[in-house]
């Protein structure tokens, strides 16, 4: 019956799987991201939407107290879009004002 079809559609529509960069588990499903997680200097990864494009804000720590850090924003394929820190400064001065979503998905404490 039509009612059964409508009820089935509504129930199936409630099952929402959150995906980011078209995968449900970026840390394990994106090969390039999984590989950089092996780098012991990486201490924070956030899903970040910049200028309406999904990607990842990745911060590395170069000293035990993390007083020296550098960050990059990479798109879903792992290409560097923005760089921050060190002697280079940033190539995306509008980054903070153009970020519409940021959620930490990984952090590593050096202590």
What strand line-up does the widest sheet have? 5-4-3-2-1-6
One letter per element, helices H and strands E, the order comes to HHHEEEEEHE
Helix fraction by DSSP (H/I, runs of at least 4):
10-25%
Share in β-strands: 35-45%
Number of strands: 6
The rounded distance between the terminal residues' Cα atoms is 62 Å
- Specify the biggest β-sheet: 6 strands, antiparallel
Summarize the structure.
This protein is α+β, with helices and mostly antiparallel strands and 111 residues long.
Itemize the secondary structure elements and their pairings.
Layout: H1 2-13, H2 26-29, H3 31-36, E1 42-50, E2 53-61, E3 69-75, E4 80-85, E5 89-90, H4 95-98, E6 99-107
Antiparallel strand pairs: 1-2, 1-6, 2-3, 3-4, 4-5
Descriptive keywords:
111 residues; alpha+beta; six-stranded antiparallel β-sheet; globular; disordered N terminus
What does this structure look like?
Helix content is 23%, strand content 38%. The protein has 111 residues and is α+β, with helices and mostly antiparallel strands. Strands 5-4-3-2-1-6 form a six-stranded antiparallel beta sheet. The radius of gyration is 18 Å and the shape is globular. Mean pLDDT is 82; it is low at 3-16.
